[in-house]
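Q: Could you fold this chain for me?
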Amino acid sequence: MQLGLGTAALGRPQYINVRTENCDNSNLAEFRKQSFNVLEKAYNLGIRYFDTAPGYGLAEELVLEWVQTKNDNTIEIATKWGYTYTANFDANATVHEVKEHSLSKLNEQWDFSKQLLPYLKVYQIHSATLETGVLENVEVLEQLAFLKKEHNLKIGLTTTGTNQVEIIKKALNVLVDGEPVFDLFQVTYNFLDQSLIEISGKLVSQNKSIVIKEALANGRVFKNESYTHYAKMYTTLENLAKKHNIGVDAISLKYCEQTIPGSIVLSGASSIDQLKQNLEMNSFTLSADEIETLNSLKVSPDAYWTERKQLEWN
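A: Sure. Below is the predicted structure, expressed as structure tokens.
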């Protein structure tokens, strides 16, 4: 099972995305119940890797509540620190989340996240950047190395933006007491932004784990009249979906799995239907020619991230 479940869309009704349907945010209790059901269904369908964060609204406490109903040591939970959710489930909030990569934020968020032990296997810096200086913050790095040793965790980071590869290269050289700190990299990757390919071989050769996020390019892989410049992509995906008798989402997820072998690809499903459609990725294989065709859809990281910045919280 190469598919993991990302919980951003389960923890907060608003997310940066191209939505194909309206989301009713009025009843939080109902929203919470549905999200809990998606976690349970994912587990019943064989998913064992669950990725969450305090920056995802209710998600981390929801995952905690859910995992406490389980007794299964094959479950792996990954969480993060560095973002605080501030929107309070208001679609019109000016600021939805605040980033802070300080030692005090790490300690504060770890204090809650540690309740996920022993299922907690991966602890990540949420969206590491050069700007926050987190990869040079000796106090933070020493604390992460301590948590790694103390709780037998993989320490990871997530990347976002045009300089993902640069961040990963820098992180690979981060040592505490002569030992590498980072074991796992959660990276945005899809056939539009293929920059991960540049460094994936190096990560594999150093025995690092790779987790792929945003495989559906925040919904941009789905046909949308606002994105006429993707006409070729839409046609390609429609033809492949028809040929393999599955959805465009499964094509996109399968592409990631096949081009970054051994990685965990995250589903961002917010409903059981979406989850089932995502899992169709396990029902077929893309040919070398089909992979080549999808490779040809690549855009520059600058174009990809400029467009992503314009997506709205909805």
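A (continued): The two ends are 31 Å apart (CA to CA).
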